[in-house]
Amino acid sequence: MHYLDHAATAPVREEVAEAVKQELMNGWGNPSSQYAIGREAAERVASYRATIAKALGGKAERLYFTSCGTESDNWAIRLALHQNRRVGKHIITTAIEHSAVRALCKELQGSGYEVTMLAPDKDGVITAEQVAEALREDTALVSMMLVNNELGTIQPVEEVAALLKERRSAALLHTDAVQAFMEIPFSVEELGADLVAVSAHKIGAPKGIGALYMGSRIKNPQALLYGGGQEKGLRPGTEATAQIAGFAKAVELRSADLQRDMLQMHSLKGYAMEQMEEMEGVELLATGATPHILPFSLVGYPSQNVVTDLSEKGIYISAGSACHQGKASHVIEALRLPKKVAAGALRVSFGPDSSKADVDALLEALKEHRKSRFPML
Questions:
Q1: CATH number of the structural domain spanning residue 275
Q2: 268 lies in the same domain as 204
Q3: Which residue, 199, 230, 255, sits at the end of a domain?
Q4: Regarding predicted confidence, which is higher, 377 or 73?
Q5: Considering only 109-118, 131-140, 323-332, which range has the smallest mean pLDDT?
Q6: Residues 274 and 242 in one domain
Q7: Which residue range(s) make up the domain with 112?
Q8: Is residue 377 one of the residues assigned to a domain?
């Protein structure tokens, strides 16, 4: 098997699975219970929270567990708009955000919010200058992802944070950092975003757990749910202790080897790009600075057909984000590519264990696809 879709989900390492198993089998006490095994579970959750917050470069008391990146994004946006409900109903976001942000912003338009959606340049980048031009006194929220999940481009979140500070804007800044966390080095304190969403299953932890980091400008945050008081009463519900344990273990493992893994993935991406540039009918779509994501097009060959064909050979890539489930990607559409190029858009994404053999198998399979199939466009 040649797995090259780590941006969709990453394989769970044995050490992570063991951490989950230990929590399920030996640490099953409810963290809200007052007897010994409950208190011990609560102490472990606090330790896991501290591990993840440290990796983010933030404070443990500002990190709240959620079920996934989508929930974190949704909570962040609604929380920011509630806090700034007297500021106005204007939102600035981008045309290349994850569907978790895009779909909610579309829904909010039906509730009286005005959404300014910034278009990327041909390389898939939004500039701070675009945000500056769109910023208004009634802007309540700016939502800009840190790393695009389909293009691998790094967006200028830190510059936007500095801009809002310089303008003394009341607008809060949210960033979806799901594809940035443990892939590129950053600190929430230096980044300057008020709300930072992350997810566990992109870094080799179980699905079903994520987190939202709230910066110091978040005052009296609005609860996402109402219930028993867990997560300081803001996101109640019995803690998913096993998933949280796996999240923390994956963070611990990634943190130990982050620089090495980044260099390895960067080298592998460079090799793939060099080979693709020499291949007939292949066009690179973006050369984003992140080491793990590489978008390209097999021009004229519908991407879903390519994905299906390669999967039969044990090679796993994607046609954009897994969240699109075969539908046209709004990210690719935002690049305004020629029809044949857009139709053939594909994404490979690497992990720490990806190898040159994986890339070579991919390249050979793409060549075979072009030989055995006729272009559809």
A1: 3.90.1150.10
A2: no
A3: 255
A4: 73
A5: 323-332
A6: no
A7: 14-255
A8: no
Q: What is the pLDDT of residues 323-363, one digit of tens each?
A: 444 456 899 999 999 999 999 999 999 999 999 999 999 99
Same domain? 231 vs 262: no
Q: Which of 258, 279, 323, 363 is catalytic?
A: 323
**46 and 101 both lie in a single domain:** yes
In this structure, the answer to whether residues 108 and 241 fall within a common structural domain is yes
Per-residue pLDDT tens over the stretch 50-103 = 999 999 999 999 999 999 999 999 999 999 999 999 999 999 999 999 999 999
Active site residue 105: no
Q: Among 227, 255, 283, where does a domain finish? A: 255
Residue 287 is predicted with a pLDDT of: 80
How far is the first Cα of the chain from the last one, in angstroms, to the nearest whole number?
30
Q: Number of structural domains, the chain?
A: 2
249 in the same domain as 160: yes
Six token digits for residue 11? 């394989």
Rounded Cα–Cα distance for residues 307 and 315 (Å):
8
